[in-house]
Every structure is written in structure tokens, then in C-alpha cells.
Amino acid sequence: LKPASGPKPGSLAASVGRACTHARHACPSVRALEVMFASRCVQAPRWIYRGAKSAARSRSESTINNVSEIVTGILQDVRQGGNAALDKYCTKFDRVPHKRLAETDVEGCLKKCSGQEIQDIKYAQTNIRRFAQLQRDSMKDVEVETQPGVILGHKHLPIKNVGCYVPGGKFPMIASAHMSVLTSKVAGCDRVIACTAPMPGGEPGRLPHTTIAAMHLAGADEIYLMGGAQAIAAMAYGTETIGAVDFI
């Protein structure tokens, strides 16, 4: 789109010009307003172009050129340094060390949720659990003797240890707890751990109570307050206190 040289007939600027024709002689400020508004309309296509160009940028595109290098460093640090490295990055990015939530922490989060929030979480999880179970039931094991002594088949075996990363921070995604923790439990995974970052701003280490409530009600066996690449590394490689998972 290229900026026009002036208001075209029938355009918004032209309409404003016609409306102000009888008033411009009586009030000089009206004439000034007309000129200003027309100039803004002339620039509008340029603004639209810039906005479209910005929106077209891929969400995966970062303003930091060496993201891969930075993340790789974090992963390796946590893999080698365990809890010490994990807490270093948690403190750097989220202002507090990582924490495994105790029963009292979870109970506190449940109490902070309103009755409507708990009702909404349970409603969503009931529907998701029902459909996930239908999906699981549709996965049939097969075993057949195709010829004497030759037995072929396949089985659906749930992964034993699963880690669920639920996005938090400025944009907590409560539904991710339903769609990861709950579906893993329906699949029959023996151990399902979940993690999310603390709330930004305010007092450090604030718990995102609705997200944690959703994790708990979905059946998470362990819940950790930690986020970012360091949390992924902790679940993938394990630390002195966090057992590694087989799938994230």
C-alpha cells in the first residue's frame, strides 16, 4: 500500500471536508482541524502497512539472535549442575528458586479459587476426560497367529513417567493443565508431574492458584513452581530431587 497524495473523492477525508465547508469561514479552528484530519487520513495507509508487516512476523521469530545458543547453555547447565543450576536460573528469571508444592500449598490454592472457578475447571475436565477415555478405548490391542507358530500384533502401553509444562507468567494457560495432565492420567501413565512459573510482579513466588488447582484436580502426582527452559531441563534430565521423565 502506498500513501495517497491527497484525499480521494468519496473518502472519509473528503466527506469531512464537505461537512466543514460551511463552517470553515466562521471558525478558523475548524479549518485547522480539517487539514489535520486530512493529513492523518493520508498517512493511514502507511500505518496499516506497518501494522500488517509487524503482524506477519512469525511468532517463532525472536528479537534475540542467539536464542538457540542461550537455551542450549541453560539446558546443559541444569543437566550438569542439578538443583544449584536450576535455582540459579529460576531466581534470575522468576525471582525465586524452584519449589515442589506441598499439600498445604495446593490446599491454599484451592481455597483462593472462587466457587465458579472450581466449577468451570471441573466442567471442562469432565468433558475432556470423557472424550480422552473414548479415544483410549478406541485403541485396540491386536494379537493374531498368521500361520502356525507365527504370532503378530501390537499393544498400546502408556509411558511411565510424563512431564507436563503448563505456560504461566503473564499469560497463564489453565487449559494446558487439562489437556496434558488429565489426558496423561487417562492414558494410564504411572507418574505425571507438572510445572508452571510463578506469577510475575508483586511479591516474588506468588502461586498461580487457578492453574495449580487445575493441575491438582487433573491428577498431577507432583507439582513444581518453576518455568522456562530450566524447568524443561529439570524434567528431561532430572536433578537431585526431581526424577527425570520419559516424555514432556
Which consecutive residue ranges, at least 5 long each, have pLDDT under 50? Answer: 1-5, 11-26
Residues in β-strands, percent = 5-15%
Whole-number mean pLDDT = 85
User: Which sequence of strands runs across the widest sheet?
Assistant: 1-6-5-4
For the sheet with most strands, the description reads:
4 strands, mixed
Secondary structural class: alpha/beta
Describe it.
The chain has about 250 residues and is of the alpha/beta class. It contains 8 helices and 6 strands. The protein has helices spanning about 10-20, 30-55, 65-95, 105-110, 115-140, 175-185, 210-220, 230-235; strands at about 100, 140-145, 150-155, 160-165, 190-195, 220-225. The protein has a 4-stranded mixed β-sheet with strand order 1-6-5-4, with helices on both faces. Helix 1 (about 10-20) runs antiparallel to helix 2.
What topology does this entry show?
Elements: H1 12-19, H2 28-55, H3 67-94, E1 99-100, H4 103-112, H5 115-138, E2 142-147, E3 150-154, E4 161-165, H6 174-187, E5 191-196, H7 209-218, E6 222-225, H8 228-237
Parallel strand pairs: 4-5, 5-6
Antiparallel strand pairs: 1-6, 2-3
Helix pairs in contact: 1-2, 3-8, 4-7, 5-6, 5-7, 6-7
